[in-house]
Amino acid sequence: MAVYTEVTDDELAPLIADYGLGELLSYKGIAEGVENTNFLVHASEGTFILTLYERRVDPADLPFFLGLLEHLAKRGISCPLPVRNRAGEVLTTIAGRTAALVTYLEGVWPRRPRTVHCGAVGRALAELHLAGADFPMTRPNSLGLEGWHEVFDRFATRADEIAHGLGNLIAYELAYLDRAWPRSLPSGVIHADLFPDNVFFVGERLSGLIDFYFACNDAWAYDLAICLNAWCFEADFSFNATKARALLTAYQALRPLTAAEREAFPILARGAALRFLVTRAYDWLHTDRNALVKPHDPNAYVRRLRFHQEVTSPGEYGLEHAP
Amino acid sequence: MAVYTEVTDDELAPLIADYGLGELLSYKGIAEGVENTNFLVHASEGTFILTLYERRVDPADLPFFLGLLEHLAKRGISCPLPVRNRAGEVLTTIAGRTAALVTYLEGVWPRRPRTVHCGAVGRALAELHLAGADFPMTRPNSLGLEGWHEVFDRFATRADEIAHGLGNLIAYELAYLDRAWPRSLPSGVIHADLFPDNVFFVGERLSGLIDFYFACNDAWAYDLAICLNAWCFEADFSFNATKARALLTAYQALRPLTAAEREAFPILARGAALRFLVTRAYDWLHTDRNALVKPHDPNAYVRRLRFHQEVTSPGEYGLEHAP
Question: Does B109 sit within 8 Å of A25, measured CB to CB?
């Protein structure tokens, strides 16, 4: 939630012209984007988002992310479309940063998702998986099981500063997942971070998906498990089975899960909870308390993980049978 | 540069409907506004700024500020126009804050103003003064000579923490202005803060004026002296006489200064420099160094004040004769 880098009008106006977008009408730094600096740009040819890539995003990954957006948009997914400049490039440099200009998507993200939103996101996730199936580039998931170990190793000795017993909980879970994690489920491009703030709605109509900077290749059903964690728990950490059913049913209407995916779903849900638990715990311990961006409370994912640990069959998520 | 208060979609969508602006399409917190929280709102009926009033702005002053914008817009000044809701009100409440919705002005503020910008702002300031002449409400200038004393009294003992001798400089200047300050110049509504970040351009065409939250009744020529300080000094603190001539000539083309105003101009320029010196010095000493909004360096106005102290006649600003 910050503008890390300022951009001057003298830099931006020629850039807009170079993209063939006419005259620069206005631009505002927007208080979104934990990782990057974003400006909402009005030009005479339309509305755009200018993203300046700051920390965490590896420049080597940008062709994958931007190529994926072009690929998905071409297949009808409503996502930001990178604009090419006169040289045919999607990447440029401004204010000393690598940057890209993408189309602006109207829509607001639901602060309090309802069941109708969960159904829409389930359908959109299936569309995304199918549309990405023939995307030729690949990117390994750096925040997969190996990655969770690596992140945990960097704060394991301090984990109990967050909550008593947290270090043991994570170590136990990692040992379990090392044994149980499924290795050969149907895979492809996944979003890997499809939280409510990355899904836009106009009224109750889903209008677009944003923030593909964690996208990678991994098991599709793991992406669905991330969404289940992100969309189907209430503020008091209770699991909302109605929302889960809406999410899973809408997803399966387009891409039914295989028997192996259904069987593995409780394990995937545990892994998805652990993935956000370890990165939030790390950020919690490593963010200056005066920082612009407040870290998320890891406890929300401790509670989700404990819920999934008690699940004994896919039926508890509403996945007993093929739809 | 911050969003101090979050607004949810469930709060904003009905508000937009209540203003008769159709459907909420999107909204983004923008990283502008030191005092308030601002959202750029796209609705099906247009683009707007939603301002939530935070600290510093006295709610009792809001009818003056918003009434002034309506008055000026009606007279052809390009400024934000407050939108009235179905009840006919310009003020509403959202997220626990008093708030207003105003029309969005296209334009970018010039990070490095050139002479052409200074001429445009001179003309716009004269238009503003003339358009505001028959505005029926009044608001005293709380940051006039008395106000500078009050602000200085709150940090006088610590002034030299900023720069050796600063306390003496300000005390000397206040004593001088107490004797010399003109009391009966032509007066009316002034903007009082028309810095470059409050003046929008599309290309070289001035497209609008914003941020009227310091507007008040005071000497028109004092407002012009504020602009001279804000627009006609370079980054190295040198006075740019070409820019000053462009500003003053364009202003006087619409409203020629009286002999008394020309005579008083060097004193007004000193007062205008001191006004920003004392508030910046106060903020410098009272802003947490980790604050979201970085304070402006008071030294820029020490340098301006010292320049004006050396001026011996209005001719040095290019004001020797009636135009």
Answer: no
Q: Which percentage of chain A shows pLDDT scores above 90?
A: 89
In this prediction the pTM is 0.92
Separation between Cα atoms, residue A10 and residue A8, nearest integer Å: 5
Query: B112, A8 in Cβ contact below 8 A?
Result: yes
pLDDT of residue A293: 66
Closest CA to B107 of B232, B200, B237, B18: B200
Within 8 A of B24 by CB-CB distance, chain A residues are 108, 202
Contacts with B204 (C-beta within 8 Å, 6 or more apart), sequence order: B116, B117, B120
How many Å apart are CA A314 and CA A248, to the nearest integer? 12
Pick from B16, B26, B199, B204 the residue to mutate for testing the A interface (most A CBs within 10 Å): B26
- Domains, chain A, ranges and CATH? 9-103 (3.30.200.20), 115-317 (3.90.1200.10)
Question: CB distance from A94 to chain B under 8 Å?
Answer: no
d(CA B259, CA A179): 90
Mean pLDDT per 10-residue interval, chain B, length 323 residues: 83 96 96 84 97 87 97 97 96 95 97 97 98 98 97 97 96 98 97 97 97 97 98 96 97 97 97 98 86 81 97 91 57
CB-based contact (8 Å) between A188 and chain B? no
Looking at residue B213, the DSSP 8-state letter turns out to be T
Report the alpha-carbon distance of residue B152 to residue B148 in Å, rounded: 6
Percent of chain A with pLDDT over 70: 96
